[in-house]
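Researcher: I need the complex structure. Ligand is shikimate-3-phosphate. Inputs:
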Amino acid sequence: MNNIDVSLKGKNIILIGFMGVGKTTVGKLVAKKLQREFIDVDEEIEKEFGMPVSEIFNKLGEKAFREKEKSLIFSLCNQKNKVLSPGGGSFLQEEIRNVSLSTSIVIFLDLSFEGWKDRLDLILDSRPVLKGKSVKEMEELFNNRQEIYSNHHLKVVTDNMNVDVIANQIINKLSDLM
Ligand code: S3P
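Model: Output:
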């Protein structure tokens, strides 16, 4: 594992992909396997505001959330040796895409809409962006977001794969960069 770290020169690893594809679960395991610190950006935002994401959206508005998301990601991108899981909407901001791609290894977790739909019950209540949307509208949002995720260094297709297999694939692909 240390060889990988040396070759990446301590660059952060950033997992991107639509909300609920498993960035946090996979990120935690990758961090553990690489002996790095894991940071969930939404969790950091919640700590700063002292409330869950859905309450931030309700009380302070999405703009306040997006600004905090941007400043946190900028500050994290100035650090090294982290595995980061930012919210799936963060990559919509061009400045976040640019700072992520220029400082870190960006890995896209690519899940099909069919695969994603199976997880809907698990994530619906905690994702304000999905609130009030029909499945068709969610599919449109899902499809519209795919283009921004095409900005990445590495991609792993995660359909029907368990978290350990996904984490190992990521680590294998990182070692191929050596
Ligand atoms: C969002 C994704 C969420 C969270 C917020 C907004 C989005 O994070 O940041 O609810 O706009 O895609 P996850 O990608 O971890 O679900």
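Model: Summary of the prediction. Residues 12-177 form a domain with the Rossmann fold fold (CATH 3.40.50.300).
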